[in-house]
Amino acid sequence: MEAKTNLLVRDLRAGYGNLDILNGVDLDVPGGQFVALMGPNGAGKSTLLKTLYGMTSIKGGNIDWRGKNIAGQKSRAILGEGISFVPQGRCNFPVMSVDENLQMAAYTLRDAKVKADRDYVYDLFPILKKRRATLAGNMSGGEQQLLEVAMAVLQRPKVLLVDEPSVGLSPAAIGIVFDELLRLHADGMTILLVEQNTKKAMEVAQRAVILRLGQVIWDGLPKDITHDELGELFLTGKMRGEADAVH
Ligand SMILES: Nc1ncnc2c1ncn2[C@@H]1O[C@H](COP(=O)(O)OP(=O)(O)O)[C@@H](O)[C@H]1O
Ligand SMILES: [Mg+2]
């Protein structure tokens, strides 16, 4: 069996143009772990995922993955290294069927030196198999979110970065999407999930990491932080017991 691989983020600084958003992020993600990344709006959660996937300007620091620093590499190369990204919002092709969407995803990945096939995805997501001829845009929000995840796992990544998959979904649909993430995790996938639905995130993740102003300010087990403490942090920008507000 292949050794578990860790993703090691060191003093990562990144942003958009001259704008610095990540101000020295340190984070170790052991292979196979399911990590929930939380924090107030604008904390830099999406920016961190985008940075891990090569979509921002890196100002400094390292992203160590399989013995090399992938910080600054292009998304396609990062994908080829086994890290895949499900961005926030819809990014399927609404007037194509599920089958065609997966075919498109496989097509766009053709240079990534990865094995991509629809049957693999249909085994993982029987719901999509049943819907293979349905136009993506005619499916429910939950089914479309599953399709987004499926398009990202088509190339059999080791690490899945998922940004706010629950936005706009009904509680039932959220349940289905999270169940699928848990199944991928049970199969060995490392998952870094950004989620505003903290209750749900705390249920599924093995570890919680809280970001504020582009830095990790808390890192621990979900059971060691309460819902109230998280709410307070999101409201005031302060952790309970912290002396000064940070602006
Ligand atoms: N493409 C962009 N260009 C410039 N600034 C951006 C861009 N995307 C996000 N930002 C800014 O970066 C900061 C962090 O945003 P983001 O990472 O989306 O936060 P979060 O996901 O934690 O809510 C915000 O101040 C936001 O306005
Ligand atoms: Mg975000």
Automatic annotation (TrEMBL):
Signal peptide: none
PROSITE patterns assigned: ABC_TRANSPORTER_1, ABC_TRANSPORTER_2
Pfam family, one: ABC_tran
The ABC transporter domain, residue ranges: 7-238
SMART domains: AAA (SM00382)
GO terms assigned for molecular function: ATP binding; ATP hydrolysis activity; branched-chain amino acid transmembrane transporter activity
Keywords: Amino-acid transport, ATP-binding, Nucleotide-binding, Transport
InterPro entries: AAA+_ATPase, ABC_transporter-like_ATP-bd, ABC_transporter-like_CS, BCAA_Transport_ATP-bd_LivF, P-loop_NTPase
GO process terms (BP): L-amino acid transport
CDD domains per the UniProt record, alphabetical: ABC_TM1139_LivF_branched (cd03224)
Family, as annotated: Belongs to the ABC transporter superfamily.
Protein known as: High affinity branched-chain amino acid ABC transporter, ATP-binding protein
Organism this protein belongs to: Neorhizobium galegae bv. orientalis str. HAMBI 540
